[in-house]
Amino acid sequence: MNRVVITGLGAVTPIGNDVPTFWENAVAGKSGAGPITRFDPSAFRTRIACEVKGFKPEERLDRNEIRKNDLYTHYALYAADEAMQDSGFDVSAVSPFDCGVIWGTGMGGLRTIEQEITEYCKNPERPRFSPFFVPKIIPNIAAGAISIRYGLQGISFATISACATANAAIIDAFTYISIGKAKMMVAGGSEASITEAFIGGFAAMKAMSTRNDDPQSASRPFDAERDGFVMGEGAGALILEDYEHAKKRGAKIYAEIVGTAMTSDAYHISSTHPEGTGAAKGMELALKEARANPDEVDHLNGHATSTPVGDISEIKAIQTVFGNDLKHLKMSATKSMTGHLMGAAGAIEAVITVKSIQDGIIPPVINTVNADEQIPASLDIVYGEARETPVNLAISNTFGFGGHNAIVAFKKV
Questions:
Q1: Which CATH number characterizes residue 146's domain?
Q2: What's phi and psi for 13, nearest 5 deg?
Q3: Least packed by Cβ within 10 Å: which of 60, 77, 189, 364?
């Protein structure tokens, strides 16, 4: 089996539209939340979100790419371009059939769907749809657009597993490289989900925070008064590469992927298993593949969306895997700053986890004032301020509606 390393990173997030800015603000504990500006939210229960700010697609995309694609693909192309430039990977130096894209999204072009159907409903007697309607909305088009831009002619497809989507994309890319079917893969996820229908749908489920008067403190994982997640948007991109190839070309190596796992709760369409059984098994399997013991894990970036049920089920899963003596495990929950990027969550959290390994800094969990009494006192959660500490082995968890769990373990090279 080939070793797989990360040689490039890219990000578009509510707290920064490139990796250096994103990382700086994550370390500083900056919240990306605020009132929704994408549409008038006054009639909705939830009127806050973590929006991407100051995004200028023309800085990395040409006019046709902007015109022909939905915002979720704009985010994807933008983040992928930063990652490709960061990696310094020369596609012309290898067979293009050894390079591919596995890119995920939870919803695809939801904004375009809403716009086109709204226009149709205004005048159904004379229907008019954009010729780009279908390619703008399908979930695989971001993967296709990235492959077209860079001439990557190898494996290319989309993953969809709700909020576990981006980690699933990373895991699939890792697998293809490890078994020798690719030398390089662009992997990640993007989401542009701050729309009337998506906000309205989640509000109807009572899954999102209604702390509308204080948006910056609304995403508060593990807090006793947490009342739901805050919607986010954006993209994260990683360049995964065969270790020997990266080493031969003198590439900068951020970290190695040493363990992955995907499991299912098989429990409920939207709720995690109350005991976290699927999540626990996923972490166990990822550590087994990494050939590591639980006490070797320095850092865990939790899924931790700030929902009453989800946060506790993840904690129970952690206790199952790591035991009750958790002082060695430093846990963060960066959705407290970025909100929940849905299908893109695992991608930006992978970027954060990799940067934690590179820089020896764990970003904080912000907004938690009074920890839920079910949180074990022995668990070292990095509340309030970032912590400088060596990180050799780290885990990033993601869980999605339908009971999908995807876990990735990263290690310092």
A1: 3.40.47.10
A2: -140, 170
A3: 60
Look up residue 109 and give its two tokens. 């072009």
Quote the tokens at residue 151. 């001439």
> What does residue 405 show for φ and ψ, rounded to 5 degrees?
-125, 130
Whether 299 is a known active-site residue: answer no
Q: What's the domain range around 138?
A: 4-248
Structure tokens at 245: 């190839």
Q: Are residues 320 and 238 both part of a single domain?
A: no
Q: Give the end of a domain, one of 248, 264, 292.
A: 248
- Gap between the Cα atoms of 324 and 15, Å rounded: 34
**pLDDT tens track, the chain, 413 positions:** 999 999 999 999 999 999 999 999 999 999 999 999 999 999 999 999 999 999 999 999 999 999 999 999 999 999 999 999 999 999 999 999 999 999 999 999 999 999 999 999 999 999 999 999 999 999 999 999 999 999 999 999 999 999 999 999 999 999 999 999 999 999 999 999 999 999 999 999 999 999 999 999 999 999 999 999 999 999 999 999 999 999 999 999 999 999 999 999 999 999 999 999 999 999 999 999 999 999 999 999 999 999 999 999 999 999 999 998 788 899 999 999 999 999 999 999 999 999 999 999 999 999 999 999 999 989 999 999 999 999 999 999 999 999 999 999 999 99
Q: Are residues 216 and 243 in the same domain?
A: yes
Residue pair 281/397 in contact (Cβ under 8 Å)? The answer is no
Given the residues 74, 99, 163, 245, the one annotated as active site? 163
230 and 352: one domain? no
Per-residue tokens: 265: 């709760």
Same domain for 242 and 278, yes or no, is: no
Q: Which of 221, 248, 275 is the last residue of a domain?
A: 248
Domain total of the chain: 2
189, β-bridge pairs: 104, 236
User: Of the residues 74, 299, 303, 404, which is catalytic?
Assistant: 303
Respond yes or no: is residue 340 known to be catalytic: yes
Q: Clarify whether residues 86 and 128 are in a common domain.
A: yes
Backbone angles phi, psi at 271, to 5 degrees: -100, 140
Burial class (CB in 10 A: 0-12, 13-18, 19+), 175: middle
Residue with tokens 């550590």: 287
Instruction: Identify whether residues 385 and 348 lie together within a single domain.
Output: yes
User: 372 and 313, same structural domain?
Assistant: yes
